Amino acid sequence: MYFYSGLGLRPLSGLYLEELNKGKIMFEWNGFNYWAAEHYDFKVVQGTEEHCLAIFRAEQMNRPTKKYGTNIVDKEHDEETDEWQMVFRWFKTEELHRKHTEFPPCYVRNDGKVL
Fold this sequence. Notes:
Strand content: 25-35%
Number of domains: 1
Helix content: 25-40%
Number of helices: 5
Number of strands: 7
Distance between the termini: 41 Å
Shape: elongated
Order of helices and strands: EEHEEEHHEEHH
Radius of gyration: 17 Å
Strand order of the largest sheet: 2-1-5-7-6
């Protein structure tokens, strides 16, 4: 995980992951923890909105949303400096993305019955 700014790439703090998962119910189903942070890669970028979105589009080219679930998970705007900070997230592998998207609905997980 990396933090990207005009100063270059630096490791992203683990504190961000704790905040991102705060309040989420962590559970396993069939031996797979669907919401575990270790399934994702993150990138934090800072700069103008256009700069951040250009980097996001480049990430989407490398890791298409339909294969890796690439998305902007958080963004903040500093009105004084007109700077943006955005957090991008994607699954580490296509297999992890597939497992996550095929996660069965609650009624199937709980009693095995389809309504």
